[in-house]
Each structure stands twice: as structure tokens, then as C-alpha cells.
Amino acid sequence: MAATRDGYGQALLELADNEKVVVLEADLGKSTKSLHFRKAYPERTISCGIGEQNMLLVAAGMASSGYIPFASTFAIFTERAFEQMRNGVARPGLAVHLCGSHGGTHTGTDGSSAQSIEDLAIFRTLPNVTVMHPSDEVSTRILTKRLATSTNASYMRTARNKTPVLYDDTPEDSIQIGKGLELKNGSDVAIVACGVLVSESLKAAEMLAQEGIQATVVDMHTIKPLDTDLINKVAERCGCIVTAEDHSIIGGLGGAVAEHLSLTTTTPLERVGVKDRFGESGQSDEMLELMELSAPHIAKAARRAMQRK
């Protein structure tokens, strides 16, 4: 078990050999795990205080000067800097990499004011921006390192709480930006998930297997660009799809898959995610159950999708 934010912090250290890599913080380096880079390379770390808008524009200036900036804060606070991400980063096409930690309701006890359930959706609307939500520490580390050679800006969401490590024995070359990962192969229903709900989807697949239902499980860590080839493949094989995310069902992974399917196929889709509401304060597992995001709810959605074939 490990938190995806730890993978982000480790990746920054592994990227440090590239002297163009710089790190920016908005007073939350301890929480986002960029503090490890700061301690080792203080001369390449910029503390912007509680000034997220300023942090994004400083990062934009550095990107335009040839640096590779990684900026981080809580996911909910990245939204303060949406205008700067739009006009200062995405519109001029600058490769600034923004990481929002503590995303989703799985954050738990901080309550709804700190639970970003819309971040993936709002950043997905911006041209020239890659959007990712990895599922474990290993894939977060690998994907963060890949961003250093990307010519696009990016938004990555990480989580505070520990989740199962899924890719310990997986070759790094198989984890690529924009390419989903098929973790389980089945022909009855496809569960396409991201972030903390990937492990819950694997649990749901085990529950379904006890009923004789064979589920495909896909880790769709990149929301934009969406791996539409993989979506098409599992849609053809399974005939129905469930999306699962700790994010609003509006505009996130479920929205992206729905948009694609509406143009290409009549494959039934069920979306598991935060319905049109805010979260509450509770422990992480309590929140998954309260918001109907846990494995049993994913399994229920799979049964509903199969009935619609």
C-alpha cells in the first residue's frame, strides 16, 4: 500500500539529473511530497506561498525560458488558478506540469470544501493540456517522469490515502501517457476506471467472477488524450462498459467515455462516480460507501450495464 502522491515526490527526485527541471510550491510541499526535491535542491525550488495564481504564471515564465516546471498544491486549490492555466499556460502552449494532490472524496475528513470533484473535468476542457489520474505509486512515478519530455502542459491528480500497489512487476515501457492498461481480461462487461477506483474495480471483478461474470478491468490513467482505441476494443469484446472514478460523473472519465461512445457505437454505458452533489466529512472508506463508489456499487453497475446489452 502506498499513496500516489509519494510516487510524484519520488519522480521529481529521479528527474533532478536534468538541470532544467524546477519545482514550484504553494505552501503545501509537505502534503504534495515536493518537499523531498526542495530539501535536496533548494536552489531549484521556488516557494510561492499561498499564491496559486502567481505560481502558475511564474511556472509559465520559466517554461518560456527553457525550464521544465513542476508545480503542485491541493487539487481544490489548483482551481483558483484556472484562468492562469488557461491564458498563461495552455493558450501559449507552454509545458507547465501542474499536480493537484488530495483529489476526490477519498480525501475524507477534510470535508466537501477540500474535496475536488470537478478538477479533471475543468482541466480537460483546455486545449494543449494532458489530464491524468494514476492509480498507484509506481504508475504515478513513471508517468510524472514522462511528463518531463512532453511538449504539452499537464494536470495530474494524486491522492493522499494509501492504495494497493498494482505495477510493482510491470515493465516501465508499458506505462505510457495516453495508453490505458488492461489489468484483467473478460468478455461480459468492461470496467474502465482511474485513480483510487482502479483497485476497487478489481475487487468488483472478483465479486462478479463468483457469479460467473467475467469482467475486463482497464486502468485509464490518462483522461485526455483518451485511449479511444482501447475503448473501442473492450466495447466490441464486452458489449457494455462501466466507468468508475472518484470524481463527478459530469465531465470526467465517464463524461469522456460517453462522448466518445456517442459518436462511435451504441454500447451501453453505466457511470460510477460522484453524482450531482458535494461530499461530506468522513474516513476514506466511509466516503467510498457513502458516495456509492466502492466495489459492490461498481459490481451493481456492471450488472445494470449487462442487462442493457
Give the termini distance in whole angstroms. 36 Å
Strand composition percent = 15-25%
Biggest β-sheet, characterized?
7 strands, mixed
Tell me, what is the CATH class of the largest domain?
Alpha Beta
N-to-C order of helices and strands: HEHHEHEHHEHEHEEEHEEHEHEHH
Q: What's the tally of helices?
A: 13
Category by helix and strand content: alpha/beta
Morphology: globular
* Cross-sheet strand order for the largest sheet: 2-1-3-4-6-5-10
How many structural domains are formed by the residues? 2
Helix content: 25-40%
Number of strands: 12
Unreliable runs: none
Supply Rg: 19 Å
The overall average pLDDT, rounded, is 96
CATH homologous superfamily grouping of the largest domain: Thiamin diphosphate (ThDP)-binding fold, Pyr/PP domains
CATH topology of the largest domain: Rossmann fold
CATH architecture of the largest domain: 3-Layer(aba) Sandwich
Structure description:
- With 309 residues, the protein is α/β, with parallel strands linked by helices.
- The chain folds into two domains: 4-157, Thiamin diphosphate (ThDP)-binding fold, Pyr/PP domains (Rossmann fold, 3-Layer(aba) Sandwich); 181-307, 3-Layer(aba) Sandwich (Rossmann fold), CATH 3.40.50.920.
- The chain has helices spanning 4-14, 29-32, 35-40, 52-64, 75-78, 82-90, 119-124, 137-147, 197-209, 228-238, 253-264, 284-290, 295-307, and strands spanning 21-25, 45-47, 68-74, 97-101, 129-132, 153-157, 181-184, 189-193, 215-219, 222-224, 241-248, 269-274.
- The strands form two sheets. Strands 2-1-3-4-6-5-10 form a seven-stranded mixed sheet, sandwiched between helices. Strands 7-9-8-11-12 form a five-stranded mixed sheet, sandwiched between helices.
- The longest helix is centred in the first third of the chain and has 13 residues, at 52-64.
- The two termini are 36 Å apart.
- The model has no long low-confidence stretch (mean pLDDT 96).
